[in-house]
Design goal:
The chain is an alpha/beta fold. The protein has a domain at about 115-130 and about 245-450: Rossmann fold, CATH 3.40.50.1100. The protein is built from 19 helices and 17 strands.
Length: about 475
């Protein structure tokens, strides 16, 4: 908390000049690993991954319970304009409100997100943005924030990201054409859907660079984190992050959990298809802020590291399996560190010891299964995913993408075990047309969308590299040198 003196003339009580002591609390950010602290939001935004290798979190979490009744009648943008400034106090409030409004102007739904009822299960549609994925909700705002902060500071940023599918295209759309940003997106060869690849590689703006790596998403993510851990390289080449390691990504996602919970008839249970844990971590923070959220159900596919953790307390890396839901084909969930930080009561030393053991051995334990009263997990296999897509289509004439189908199956399984007086909400992460092969296999027809159809036949711009950190570093340097000389 900071203390400031303000001097003013108070004519009402006949006094000339009075010194009044005003207390104002400022939102600061720190690293989960304890070596970085006292950052303002804009510095946290540009830092991305903390310089000590940890993830940035707010030093305090606001309690919004006194404001919930007022917020129930707000639309999505209005709620974002009320909630997000609680975490950002170094951008002028009116400018921030404008950036938030501009971020969602391109969404096709009147209220940005939508809720569909399927016989006791609500589906929270988050795919009405420009790239038809939930990542748009955060990355459209992130692009606006980058543009504003860099413009104010007269700086530039080179973004390095890793994607299992949707993050790449959403991040590219958020910053394409910006003069003070170059973006480099790594994706695993053959492990994103063809349409996801088209969404990234057909963007022809000079500041966009797609890198096809011969490896898994975990390999891409590990290279990204290793590059960011090289402090000299990161500073020299002005690197920033758009992956969910960037706090601003998580912040924007808190809004739709608050929005949906305030529209539920009772405390909500959210079922979240999960790979990197950023999406469900935003729900976890919304619950800690006081939104009416009863339970969080973490839905995984065959890459079940999180399901195994919630069942046993052991976080153990396994083999990456290719599935119908490629954005969840992850065995190391980068945002899980933030959850562990709070699970360990913000004890950075304990967290660092856990992460060091996991990095060295591929496995670490918290000693016992975590308390599942707030959060639990269900693993869903390929057959169950296809069955959910087929059943929902036959029963409700509604089409699920395979990621959302993972969540729907987990929700149905959980429904009979729920406490009475709760609503269950499945987070729909992508438009089904992004995964036509899986939908056709399950339902017999191929979904389409005009945005995706327009990409077919366009030239693809990508560079294939071996799964090697040295090759990626060299490529970045060469491209940035070419940009400087242009």
């Amino acid at each position: 908390m900071s203390c400031q003196n303000f001097y003013f003339n108070d004519a009402r009580d006949g006094l000339n000049w009075r010194t009044r002591l005003v207390f104002r609390s400022f939102m600061k950010y720190k690293s989960t690993r304890g070596q970085v602290a006292d950052l303002g939001f804009s510095d946290a935004l540009l830092m991305g991954l903390a310089s000590d290798g940890g993830l940035l979190v707010p030093e305090n979490i606001p309690d919004v319970r006194p404001e919930l009744e007022h917020w129930r009648d707000l639309n999505f943008v209005e709620l974002a304009q009320e909630l997000i400034p609680k975490f950002i106090d170094d951008i002028d409030s009116q400018i921030l409100r404008g950036l938030i409004s501009e971020s969602y102007a391109s969404f096709s739904h009147a209220d940005v997100v939508a809720l569909q009822d399927l016989d006791g299960i609500s589906v929270l549609e988050l795919f009405h943005g420009p790239t038809l994925a939930f990542k748009d909700v955060a990355l459209q705002l992130l692009g606006k924030l980058f543009e504003h902060v860099l413009g104010e500071r007269g700086q530039r940023l080179n973004i390095l990201g890793a994607t299992s599918g949707d993050t790449g295209s959403a991040a590219i759309d958020g910053v394409r054409g910006q003069k003070n940003i170059d973006i480099f997106i790594m994706y695993p060869k053959g492990r994103v859907s063809p349409l996801q690849e088209l969404q990234m590689t057909t963007v022809a703006d000079d500041n966009v660079h797609c890198i096809e790596l011969d490896g898994s998403f975990d390999d891409c993510q590990n290279i990204m984190k290793t590059v960011f851990a090289d402090a000299h390289y990161k500073a020299t080449h002005q690197l920033g992050a758009v992956n969910s390691v960037n706090w601003a990504r998580v912040l924007a996602q808190i809004v739709y959990y608050g929005y949906a919970s305030l529209r539920s008839s009772a405390d909500a249970t959210f079922c979240v298809p999960t790979g990197n844990f950023g999406n469900v971590f935003a729900a976890y923070l919304a619950q800690r802020m006081g939104f009416p959220i009863a339970h969080l159900l973490v839905a995984t596919n065959d890459n079940d590291i999180l399901a195994r953790f919630f069942a046993t307390g052991v976080y153990a890396r396994g083999e990456v399996h290719q599935t119908l839901s490629p954005a969840m084909d992850i065995q190391v969930a980068s945002n899980f560190e933030r959850f562990l930080y709070y699970h360990f009561d913000r004890d950075s030393d304990r967290l660092v010891a856990f992460m060091q053991e996991f990095t060295a051995t591929g496995s670490a334990s918290i000693g016992a299964p975590p308390n599942t009263q707030l959060m639990s997990s269900v693993a869903v296999n390929t057959e169950q995913t296809l069955a959910a897509m087929r059943d929902v289509n036959q029963q409700f004439q509604y089409v699920l993408d395979p990621h959302t189908a993972v969540g729907y199956h987990a929700a149905r399984k959980h429904l009979d075990e729920m406490s009475k007086g709760t609503d269950i909400v499945v987070v729909a992460t992508a438009h089904p047309a992004k995964f036509p092969d899986a939908v056709q296999e399950a339902t017999g027809f191929e979904p389409t969308h005009p945005t995706l159809e327009a990409l077919k036949g366009l030239d693809m711009h990508r560079t294939a590299l071996p799964c090697d950190i040295g090759a990626v570093k060299t490529y970045l340097v060469e491209k940035l040198q070419m940009a400087r000389e242009a």
